[in-house]
Amino acid sequence: MSVTPFSSRRTLVPTSFKSDIPPRSVKRSRNLDICAKLTTIQEGRKDVIGLSLNKPITIGRNPDRCSYVVADTSVSGVHCTIFAVRSQHGGVIVSCQDISKNGIFLNAQRIKKTSVILMDNDLLKLPDSITFMCTHVWKDSVPVDRFSVVDPPPQALRRSTHKHIGRYTVSGQCLGSGSFATVHLAFSSHRRCQVACKSITIKSKKDSEKELDQVMKETRILMGLNHPNINRIYDSEEDPDSKYFHIFLQLCTGGDLFTYINSYGERYERMEEQEVKYIMYQLLLGLKYLHSQHISHRDLKPENILLYAPGPYPRIQIADFGLARPKAWQETFNVCGTVSYLPPEGVLALDQKHLGYVGMPSDCWSAGIILYIMLSGSHPFDYDAPCDSRASRILHSVGSEYHSEESELLANCFRSEAQLKERIIDGQVEFHPSIWHDLHEAKTLILLLLIHDPLKRAKVADALKSLWITKDLNMLENAYRARITASISPAEKL
């Protein structure tokens, strides 16, 4: 069981970048928070565009709408937008959103009407026009794992390193890493887009057949899901020459909701109610679809909600279905997920093995916690957890040896978890007047989703009928159609 304290956040020390060559047609900025740069590759002149966090750059032919102007007729008025957002792992995600007629080329691969991640030293070309090289100034701090699906080993990986798996080309660029899986950036030639390749390692030969059968069973169920707010599984491949099972997922380039909420805390006091409502509306629609398929997620939290692309009022996708359960109406005695987001019945079942809980009401409780966090910037129960990321890593290392200093960290972590469990079981939620005085309808919805008794707790349909949602339903529906339906790329339609 993992404890993920919401209060822990990673901080970055910006690396300043100074260019002696001013970018062409780019407004000059004295900011020293440049996290990446785009350098033109052309004879006779080199332009450098500095990219800062949450300050996108538009490239195109229209000088009134673009921050970098390219006069070539093959270039659209607004051809593409370059973003930089914080990564869940402490670095940055640099991405390019193509909105042109002719598309773009990323490392000679044709991309159209979708968003792609730009890694360090990637080449971005506008058709029949200019080429940029992307350089990351802030380097990603993705932890190097014990294994990689691509040879040579991770410390020797170069941009050209890749491996062909089925119809996909998997690069050596690691997007994330865990105890039993890594996520690599991959390219789908038949969809003409980037995808995420999640490679799961089978622990031992003795258990491999049983594990593989279980993973394949869950994957087949999830491959049948198709909803704008569910991170889609495109394909799966078993690698006969290795110990890996590969799942190919829809790529999201905007980071995760946890990091997005924290970035608001750095720039503003907290998220605006209307944006929270738009995100929550999508989350409820995704859950409604998921529950209609009799599937519960069972690990719903901001870290597992991805932003399809950067920018305000984002399209969100529920992701990471490793703990999802079909036949979700049935009671289970196998408690899983993150303690901070477990309902009271789940917490009680942790220590009392004869007790069980049901996945669907658990998802609704988690949604209530997420709504509280988005509006207030804090967790209703896990508000003073001292357990830091280092202690979490130790806690997850079952059977590892650690020193007395680490023992103290773990002791604090366990004490925090015990307090957290008590608060969840008690169920008393505090609403500080300074934040909640004008959020009455939202507070009512949260209390309905955080009802102690799962039989009385609000279901997804009840939440969608709440006054907080229905009073702005026309606005939400129109925004959903305009922003989300329009953002569905050709690759998603395949």
TrEMBL record:
Belongs to the protein kinase superfamily. CAMK Ser/Thr protein kinase family. CHEK2 subfamily. Residues 169-469 form the Protein kinase domain. PROSITE patterns: FHA_DOMAIN (PS50006), PROTEIN_KINASE_ATP (PS00107), PROTEIN_KINASE_DOM (PS50011), PROTEIN_KINASE_ST (PS00108). This is Kinase-like protein. Keywords: ATP-binding, Kinase, Nucleotide-binding, Serine/threonine-protein kinase, Transferase. Gene3D superfamilies: 2.60.200.20, Transferase(Phosphotransferase) domain 1. Pfam families: FHA, Pkinase. Residues 57-111 form the FHA domain. Transmembrane segments: none annotated. One of its GO terms (molecular function) is ATP binding. It comes from Rhodocollybia butyracea. CDD domains: FHA_MEK1-like. ATP binds at residue 198. The keyword Lipid biosynthesis does not apply. The keyword Cell division does not apply. SMART domains: FHA, S_TKc.
